Amino acid sequence: VQLQASGGGLVQPGGSLRLSCVASGFTLDSYNIGWFRQAPGKEREGVSCISGRDGSSYYSNSVKGRFTISRDDAKNTVYLQMNSLEPEDTAVYYCAADHRWATMVHWMVIGAAGASADLTHWGQGTLVTVSS
C-alpha cells in the first residue's frame, strides 16, 4: 500500500507545475485525497483536498484561484495543477488519503501539524521550488 507523489521541480515565478499522486496496492476511488506542503522551517499546511464520494473540493486561501485539484480514478491518480506559482509556494508537497472527509478538511483548515499521525496513507513528498 503506497502513495507516490511526483511532478515537482524548479520553476520560475508565474510558472506552472502539475503534481501527481498515484496509489499502488489499493484503489483511490473510495478515498478522499489531500495535498499538503511543508516549507523549510515551517509547519505542514493543507493545500487542497478532493472528496472520493462526490468530487467536491476544498482549497486553502493561499492557493485558491491558482491551484486546481482533480482525480482520475481509472488511473488511480489525483492531480494538483499549480498555476501562477509564487516563491511562497516553495515546499515539499505531500499527498494523503483517508476515508474521512470531515477529518481531511479539518486538517486543511486548522493547520496540518497533527495530520501525519492521523490520516491513513501518505506519499513521500515531491519538492517544488519557485525561484528566478
Largest sheet: 7 strands, mixed
Terminus-to-terminus distance: 37 Å
Helix content: under 10%
Report the average pLDDT across residues: 94
* Count of discrete alpha- or pi-helical segments spanning 4 or more residues: 1
Which H/E pattern describes the elements?
EEEEEEEEEHEE
Q: Classify the secondary structure makeup into a structural class.
A: mainly beta
- Radius of gyration, in Å, reads 13 Å
- Segments where pLDDT lies below 50 for 5+ residues? none
How many strand units? 11
- Based on CA inertia axes, which overall geometry fits? globular
Descriptive account of the structure:
The chain has 132 residues and is mostly beta strands. The protein has 1 helix and 11 strands. The chain has one helix at 101-110, and strands at 2-6, 9-11, 17-24, 32-38, 45-50, 57-59, 67-72, 77-82, 91-98, 121-122, 126-130. Strands 2, 4, 5, 6, 9, 10 and 11 form a 7-stranded mixed sheet that branches. The protein has a 4-stranded antiparallel sheet with strand order 1-3-8-7, with no helix packed on it. A hairpin with a 4-residue loop joins strand 7 (67-72) and strand 8. The chain is globular and about 40 Å long.
